[in-house]
Amino acid sequence: MANVPTPHNDAIEGQIAKTVLMPGDPLRAQYVAEHYLENVTCFNHVRNMLGFTGTYQGRPVSVMGSGMGMPSIGIYSHELYNFYGVDAIIRIGSAGGIGAGLQLRDLVIAQGACTDSNYAHLFKLPGTFAPIASYDLLRRAVDKAQELGVRTQVGNVLSEDGFYGGDPEDTGRWADMGVLALEMESAALYMNAAKAKRKALSLLSISDLVLTGESLPASERQTSFTQMMEVALSLALPEGA
C-alpha cells in the first residue's frame, strides 16, 4: 500500500474493498451502491468519478466509475491494483453487439479483448499481447449467469479507441473473426491486471446492435442492466455462497 490518496482518488488506506465493480458511468456506480449495497460510504469525489464501498451479503464490495476509454480505465485500474491493494476488478459495462444471435440486454462475458489501441506499447513487449480474462472469475460468472437464466455469450470483444467514425467494413471483418461486441475499456483493464498479477473480468450488457441500428436510451443503460450487476456482485462472495 503506497501513494494514497492519488491525484485521481481521495480514498485512504482501507476504504476500498478487495473486489471492485467498475462501470464506465459514475452514476451507474452510484446506482449499484444505492440498490445493492448496505452500510455504504462514498470514498471518492475527485473529478466526480464516484466510488463507494459497502457490503453485499455481509462481504465488503466497492464500486467505482472508470470513465470512457482505455486511458481512463487504465489510470483508475492501475491505481486500484497497485496503490490500493485491490485483488479483482469486474467491469460492468455496455457494448455494441455484432455477434450472430445477440439481442438487446444480452450479457457478453469477455473471454478476451482484441484492440485497435496502442495501449500495450506501455509494456514494451517484443510481440503482440493477447489480453484475456481471469479464468476463475470467467468460470464463476458463466455459472451464475446460467443459474439466473441470463441470455449469455462468451468470447472475444473489441476494445476500440474511437466511438464515432468506424468503418462498417472493418466492423464486418471483426464480426467475421467471431468478435461478439464493441466497447472501449476491457483490453486495458486486462493488460493492467496481467502486469499487476491481479484478476479482471468484463461483463457487458448489449445496449445496441451495431449492424441493425437497434439501441437502448441512455437512461436504460444507466439503470436497467440488473442481471449483469447481480452476476458481478456474486463474484465478490466466497465460491459456492
Automatic annotation (TrEMBL):
Keywords: Glycosyltransferase, Transferase
Catalytic activity from the UniProt record: uridine + phosphate = alpha-D-ribose 1-phosphate + uracil
Presence of the UniProt keyword Transferase in the record: yes
GO biological process, alphabetically ordered: uridine catabolic process
This protein's record includes keyword Glycosyltransferase: yes
One of the record's GO molecular function terms: uridine phosphorylase activity
CC per GO annotation: cytosol
Gene3D superfamilies referenced in this protein's UniProt entry, alphabetically: Nucleoside phosphorylase domain
Domain Nucleoside phosphorylase, residue spans: 19-229
Highest taxon, organism lineage: Bacteria
HAMAP family in UniProt: Pur_nucleosid_phosp (MF_01627)
PANTHER family referenced in this protein's UniProt entry, alphabetically: FI09636P-RELATED (PTHR43691:SF11), URIDINE PHOSPHORYLASE (PTHR43691)
Name this polypeptide is given: Uridine phosphorylase
Lineage of source species: Bacteria, Bacillati, Actinomycetota, Coriobacteriia, Coriobacteriales
